[in-house]
Design goal:
This protein is about 30% helix and about 15% strand. By secondary structure, the chain is an alpha/beta fold. The longest helix has 15 residues, at about 170-185. The radius of gyration is 20 Å and the shape is globular. The structure holds calcium ion (2 copies). One calcium ion binds near residues 199, 208, 209 and 210.
Length: about 375
């Protein structure tokens, strides 16, 4: 068994889930931990789908209900039952890691209305694409802290705009402290599922993400086996680097199209094949695929037949955590939409049910309460392991 695999199994023993659901299932979430796998074949042990409880990751917090990547979004995700909260990390000019989905922040903050920062507007090429706006690496932390978060998609999430202008951009340290404090208050483990954004780009401007990330985790006592932490990236080289530097579980994200910015010529399609997954398994513990890679849509816009991805990944001991699940019609397969308003909620429960039935080990959701309710229905209905 590779050291990666033993890490994965160790991980499965402490999934923070789920005092709630543990009571509902015959086998606890960590049932796979005692399984040594098929030693004869050298194959890693894989938890049968019926023995584990999928995790719910609050994507950018509870971003269906609050401006994303704010402490209030994360806090609400925890309150709604998310097992993990998901900060995306970029760097400030002074090398502090902060939570934003992009380093360009005009879409998620009020920076464009701040005359004092008007001269910071610029155009940069990031991973081969030109962006015009304001960039975290051109601001010191103290300056970024003057900004306030706004809703990214007000046309679909008008109610969230109520909270525009109220919340700061949080640092990684603040997110770690929140998870710890809320976990203590609620008497449960709150996990943190951290994404490094544009790691090669940040290397290129002298603001490498991995060192301050591991340093912050170390200071918080979280850079250790069995800590409730996952590290994820759309790139590959930084995951290989992290594999050498930490024993925390690593997740290779698999975009719906294109390929890793640090691997020109390699596509996510190729990485999603059995051969691609075998390569990923040498440095990572799981994959985070675009959900269409698990269940593609039919030409008519319904959920189709699941691909081999979950089975292929599980055969290698890799977890599968697809993204992103959202309640609004705009993000659902056409067959699950209700009415014609893209901002109205469709039949999200049917989508969750199909993915849980397909054997995923967890998923990223903007609406963690809906995901938790769907999971409960799934776990309650399935036969005991
Ligand atoms: Ca993310
Ligand atoms: Ca780096």
């Amino acid at each position: 068994m590779s050291h990666r695999t033993s890490r994965l199994l160790a991980r499965s023993a402490v999934l923070p889930a789920l005092a709630l659901v543990a009571a509902l299932v015959a086998a606890p979430a960590g049932a796979a931990a005692g399984n040594d796998g098929d030693r004869k074949s050298g194959r890693p042990a894989v938890a049968p789908a019926t023995a584990t409880v999928p995790i719910v990751v609050g994507h950018r917090g509870a971003s269906g209900y609050r401006p994303e990547h704010t402490l209030e979004s994360y806090r609400l995700a925890i309150a709604l039952g998310a097992d993990y909260i998901e900060p995306d990390l970029v760097s400030t000019r002074d090398g502090v890691l902060v939570a934003r989905h992009e380093n360009e922040i005009s879409g998620t903050t009020d920076v464009s209305s701040r005359p004092e920062f008007a001269d910071r507007r610029t155009t940069k090429t990031i991973d081969g694409v030109a962006f015009t706006g304001w960039f975290t690496e051109d601001f010191d932390l103290a300056e970024l802290k003057e900004l306030r978060a706004v809703e990214r998609i007000p046309q679909l999430r008008q109610e969230n705009t109520l909270y525009d202008g109220r919340y700061e951009i949080p640092t990684l340290e603040e997110v770690l402290a929140l998870a710890k404090a809320e976990g203590k208050r609620l008497h449960r483990t709150v996990g943190i599922y951290i994404e490094t954004k544009h790691p090669s780009y940040f290397d290129g401007i002298g603001l490498s993400l991995e060192e301050p990330l591991l340093e912050a985790l170390r200071r918080a006592g979280l850079d250790r086996p069995n800590a409730p932490v996952f590290l994820q990236s759309f790139e590959t080289a930084n995951l290989r680097e992290l594999d050498r530097k930490t024993r925390l579980p690593l997740v290779q994200l698999l975009g719906g199209s294109g390929g890793p910015a640090d691997r020109p010529g390699t596509s996510y399609d190729a990485l999603s094949t059995a051969a691609g997954l075998r390569e990923i398994a040498t440095y990572a513990d799981g994959v985070g695929p675009d959900k269409n890679r698990v269940i593609p849509r039919t030409a008519a816009g319904a959920l189709g037949v699941p691909t081999a991805l979950v089975a292929d990944a599980h055969a290698l001991g890799l977890l599968v955590h697809p993204y992103t699940f959202r309640n609004e019609n705009a993000f659902l397969p056409p067959a699950l939409r209700r009415g014609t308003d893209p901002a109205a909620y469709g039949d999200a429960f049917e989508e969750y049910a199909a993915f849980f039935a397909a054997g995923v080990d967890g998923l990223f959701s903007d609406n963690p309460d809906t995901a938790v309710a769907a999971r409960e229905a799934f776990v309650t209905a399935r036969p005991a392991a």
